[in-house]
Specification:
282 residues, mainly beta, Jelly Rolls, eight-stranded antiparallel β-sheet, seven-stranded antiparallel β-sheet, 17 strands, 9% helix, Polysaccharide lyase-like protein, TAT_signal
């Protein structure tokens, strides 16, 4: 089995600096579509939000999640799909010959599901407003695809409903895109979309704000770097977003979930890194 390429090395000083600066990024005001100063009302909400999830990879490990979904058919027991790397971040590996047990062999999956703090699962329910933040590293080998590639999604466990909200790696001709989408709405419209290429091979910051409900709200900020002062690559928001709790809860998932029916040149052995997970409820 060939080794996957390692991420760029990070100094301990850089890691600690970015973790201290990050926390959950201040959510943008819903309806705000351009970069600029955060309104005072949004800043006040962020200050009042209760930080509920802040896993430490070195001590919490995979117990930070409700579970891991990878190689569910047991075809490759020798492979390590999700692991703590370097003591400060999570690594999600996927191989081009992986196949999930769903979809009749047309897809593959290496994902974590849910948020667990001190042994208890956190649940996003109707009427609640949540902010989720994390830092992410995407290598050159992780491509945008013509079919679906989700690197974040929300679903409802009770009925496996969704995905409702996704962060996708897409493609328009030769241009690869990072797309935040209201996936369960008609046409799966973009909340925000930008060119993928400038965001690769570095740590970037993703910030979500959700109000859960059948006519909910969603906002996404992508920062080209780490910490709240990193420049905004793209941001957007949307109302009347379909993301109900289905009398259960909305559960986030992170990792790589993709169709293998895209061009074979886009389905490579690859990986995705995450660190500095945070979740707050207003």
């Amino acid at each position: 089995m060939a080794e996957l390429p390692p991420p760029h090395p990070l100094s301990r000083r850089r890691v600690l600096g970015s973790m201290a600066a990050a926390a959950v990024g201040t959510p943008i005001a819903l309806g705000q579509l351009t970069s600029g100063a955060t309104p005072a009302s949004a800043a006040s909400r962020a200050a009042a939000a209760q930080l509920l999830w802040h896993p430490d990879p070195s001590s919490d490990g995979l117990k930070a999640f409700e579970g891991i979904e990878a190689d569910r058919g047991g075809a490759h027991p020798d492979r390590k799909y999700v692991l703590v790397e370097g003591g400060d971040h999570y690594r999600f590996n996927i191989w081009k010959d992986d196949r999930d047990t769903t979809g009749g062999g047309d897809r593959q999956r290496t994902e974590s599901k849910g948020m667990v703090q001190d042994g208890s699962a956190l649940k996003m329910r109707d009427g609640e407003t949540w902010s989720l933040g994390y830092e992410m590293f995407m290598p050159t080998s992780l491509h945008g695809t013509s079919k679906f590639t989700h690197i974040f999604q929300t679903k409802t466990p009770v009925d496996n409903g969704g995905p409702y909200i996704t962060l996708d790696l897409g493609r328009s001709g030769s241009t690869e895109l990072l797309r935040a989408r209201a996936y369960a709405n008609s046409g799966s419209p973009d909340i925000a979309s930008t060119n993928l290429a400038p965001l690769r091979n570095k740590w970037i910051t993703i910030e979500w704000t959700f109000t859960i409900g059948s006519k909910g709200k969603a906002a996404c900020v992508v920062r080209n770097g780490t910490g709240s002062g990193a420049p905004v690559a793209v941001q957007g928001s949307m109302s009347n977003v379909k993301m109900p709790d289905q009398d259960d809860y909305q559960r986030p998932k992170w990792g790589i979930y993709r169709s293998v029916e895209s061009a074979s040149s886009d389905i490579l052995d690859t990986y995705l890194l995450f660190r500095n997970f945070r979740a707050s409820k207003a």
